[in-house]
């Protein structure tokens, strides 16, 4: 095989790492791919790490040990994350986004892959190292943000449904309060998760918290531990919904009926900027 130029190797290694977020890639993979010594690959990794840190493009980490290697985590600097969410809050506060019943039009933002990828990276940042096995969401609008969060964490996305589907096999079905005085149903295929796993719940919108509490109850049926709740937009509350960590990107006040809804960046996100 023709010897690979170092410049070409650096570009290829960077692309390989970015395409496999939060996955430890052994040095041997690069050594075999580029027919290079481990010492050369180590120098390349150090250079990539330096550039990523200098330009704040994410985090390159070297993992030691028998199963060691290098991994890329698509972390966004907290000040940049806050700026992105402030711009999103301004967009959501536009009067034309108000919908009947006290809702806000979110679909165009949730369909924007650039924005949802940034949201996923922000929501994944506090969850690295928590041993999350999968991300759980409820169909359907929460899927884009949940998928990007799962991608950043490099774990599967599991989707709970309103009703079971024949093509998913046997399922667990539960009924739960919707937070408005009614009852809803939720279903998940028995093969989707395993007992003892850990999950992060991600959804697009949370007002009364019924759906989030329903997903927590559903995970109890599977013997699965919920490690936290993450939302694109959640009602501002004086008390948290549960005793679990909560990471809303944006919060809102007002019901959209008696008083207008006002969206702002979440408190925890602003606190991260102050601590950074």
Weakly predicted, low-confidence segments:
none
What does the main sheet amount to? Answer: 6 strands, mixed
Number-wise, the strands total 12
- The secondary structure category is alpha/beta
Q: What share of the residues lie within helices?
A: 25-40%
CATH architecture title of the largest domain: 3-Layer(aba) Sandwich
CATH fold title of the largest domain: Rossmann fold
CATH class of the largest domain: Alpha Beta
SSE pattern, N- to C-terminal: HHHEEHEEHHEHEEEEHEEEH
Identify the strand order in the major beta sheet: 6-5-9-10-11-12
Structural overview:
The chain is α/β, with parallel strands linked by helices. It folds into two domains: 6-73, Arc Repressor Mutant, subunit A (Orthogonal Bundle), CATH 1.10.10; 78-275, 3-Layer(aba) Sandwich (Rossmann fold), CATH 3.40.50. The chain has nine helices and twelve strands. The chain has helices spanning 6-18, 27-34, 38-54, 78-92, 107-110, 113-124, 143-153, 210-222, 267-275, and strands at 59-63, 69-73, 98-99, 103-104, 134-138, 157-160, 171-177, 183-189, 198-206, 225-235, 246-253, 262-265. It has a six-stranded mixed beta sheet, sandwiched between helices. Strand 9 (198-206), helix 8 (210-222) and strand 10 form a beta-alpha-beta unit. The longest helix is centred in the N-terminal third of the chain and has 17 residues, at 38-54. The mean pLDDT is 95.
């Amino acid at each position: 095989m023709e010897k690979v130029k170092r410049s070409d190797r650096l570009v290829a290694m960077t692309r390989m790492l970015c395409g496999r977020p939060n996955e430890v890639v052994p040095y041997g993979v690069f050594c075999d791919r580029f027919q290079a010594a481990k010492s050369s690959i180590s120098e390349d990794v150090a250079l990539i790490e330096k550039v990523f840190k200098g330009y704040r493009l994410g985090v390159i980490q070297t993992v030691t040990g028998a199963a060691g290697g290098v991994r890329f985590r698509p972390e966004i600097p907290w000040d940049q994350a806050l700026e992105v969410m402030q711009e999103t809050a301004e967009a959501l506060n536009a009067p034309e986004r108000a919908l009947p019943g006290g809702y806000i039009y979110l679909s165009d933002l949730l369909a924007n892959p650039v924005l949802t990828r940034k949201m996923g990276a922000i929501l994944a940042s506090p969850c690295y190292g928590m041993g999350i096995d999968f991300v759980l969401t409820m169909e359907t609008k929460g899927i884009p943000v949940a998928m990007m969060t799962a991608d950043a964490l490099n774990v599967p996305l599991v989707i709970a449904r309103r009703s079971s589907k024949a093509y998913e096999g046997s399922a667990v079905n539960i009924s739960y309060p919707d937070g408005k005085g009614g009852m809803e149903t939720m279903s998940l295929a028995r093969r989707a998760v395993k007992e003892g796993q850990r999950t992060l719940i991600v959804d697009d919108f949370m007002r009364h918290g019924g759906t989030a509490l329903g997903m927590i109850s559903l995970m109890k049926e599977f013997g699965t531990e919920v490690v936290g709740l993450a939302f694109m937009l959640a009602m501002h509350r004086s008390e948290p919904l549960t005793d679990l960590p909560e990471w809303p990107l944006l919060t809102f006040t007002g019901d959209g009926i008696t008083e207008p809804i006002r969206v702002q960046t979440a408190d925890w996100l602003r606190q991260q900027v102050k601590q950074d």
